[in-house]
Specification:
The protein is an all-alpha fold. The chain is built from one helix and no strands. The longest helix has 45 residues. It is elongated and about 90 Å long. The chain starts with a helix and ends in a 21-residue tail after the last helix. It comes from Larsenimonas rhizosphaerae. This is Motility protein. InterPro entries: YjfB_motility (IPR025906).
Length: 67
């Protein structure tokens, strides 16, 4: 009976350590994703469209929705 109790305690301790490690890794992943999102936003903000869309005339202002 003592062996099974020791095994349960050992398994519980191992699971707690695994959960703690998983939480740390999830936190690191969130930090990395936030940093990456900020970098992408900065990159997207730095790129400005070079040409404006057509607003008048027949070229580029009409879409054939029946095609």
């Amino acid at each position: 009976m003592d062996a099974s109790i020791n095994a349960m305690v050992s398994m519980s301790s191992a699971l707690q350590q695994a959960n703690a490690m998983q939480e740390a890794q999830a936190g690191l992943l969130n930090e990395v994703l936030d940093t990456q999102a900020a970098s992408v936003n900065q990159l997207m903000d730095s790129v400005k469209p070079t040409a404006e869309l057509a607003t008048s005339g027949s070229l580029g202002t009409q879409i054939n929705t029946y095609a």
